[in-house]
Amino acid sequence: MATNIAAPPPAFPAGARERPQSYPALHGLRGALALWVVLYHLTPGRIGLVGGALRANQYGYLAVDIFFVMSGFILFHAHGRHLADLRVDRLVEFFRLRFWRTMPMHLASVALALAVSGLVVHEWPSRAALLRAVLLLDTWNEASIAHRINGPVWSLHVEWVGYLCMPLLFVALQKWRVRRWLALGTALGQVAIMGGLSLSPSAFEGTGALVRMAGGCGLGCVLWTLRDHPLMARLEGDAALLLACAGAIAILEVASPVFVTPMLAVIVMALTRPGRLAGAMLTNRAMLFLGRISFSLYITHYPVMCAYLVLQRAGAISSAVASVLTLTTALALASAVCVTIEEPTRRFGRQRFAFGPAWHSLVAPRLAQRPHR
After folding, report:
1. 285-340, pLDDT tens digit by residue?
2. What is the pTM of this model?
3. Domain for residue 332, yes or no?
4. Which residues constitute the domain of residue 254?
5. Is residue 113 part of a domain?
6. Which of 268, 358, 332 minimizes the C-alpha distance to 69?
């Protein structure tokens, strides 16, 4: 990370275990979730090779809810203490890093959606629709061509609203020392919100999408504040993970997905300190590579699917061939986009647009003298 602001040493409650500084199992989980989203989009009604055999695959959209939970958890881990006092330099640093993490990939996905829309679907968007897509506004304007060709971008739109609110949430959960019972109640409320919206057709647009994002990211942030609670120690390791996954699968097969949402928090918490089985499954080379390309895969696979869907409906290829080609092309494209766009732009943003020497010569000495609270 390109920031020159050193994080203060963590203060642990008496008897608390040291918190890990990285979460490789969650990184591998990101890859599995991105792949789940792709398989969900290949269900009947779109292309249809996979999804008919397992009812659970019909709920692949829940992967996005886990993404939201992980996003809140990891961002609180990475930036929570930095932003506890809302200093301007750290706010600028936070939003700068978020910009270079998301916007170059967003623009690349808009360009890909535009190419598929014009060259394959033969339907060009209006200038207004294209501008809404570029400015992350077409979650509220469903007529946008870019939204129809690249539907998953809706989550990025609402997540930016979350980024704007997160610094205040970080302060609320630290500076004001929210009681743990209140944080736990908030977490349960977030779970209820997520579960209710999972059944709503409006959960992918407008206010529904915003509340769904708030539920997931807020839950992730609250989970971090409860990280050292003795109860949370029981949610770690292979046993908790297997129980949560088994419970989620059973619920999805026989009941409403509203009841599976509490399992999302358990899955995330169990993987913060994974057991031997989870470590072997999610931290091997293949899963870590999927985690590496997960954002690229998530944000670019839908236009690829739409292109093959046009060929399928024209009778040029079968449904099975379209599904296989979508999956292989999406993985190859995501790998290329990650290496050529996602990672270089992140490095460029961190290095080229970090605060300059003049800023640091003026501010850094004062920051060094200021005691941490």
Report:
1. 999 999 999 999 999 999 999 899 889 888 899 888 988 999 999 999 999 999 99
2. 0.81
3. no
4. 48-283
5. yes
6. 268
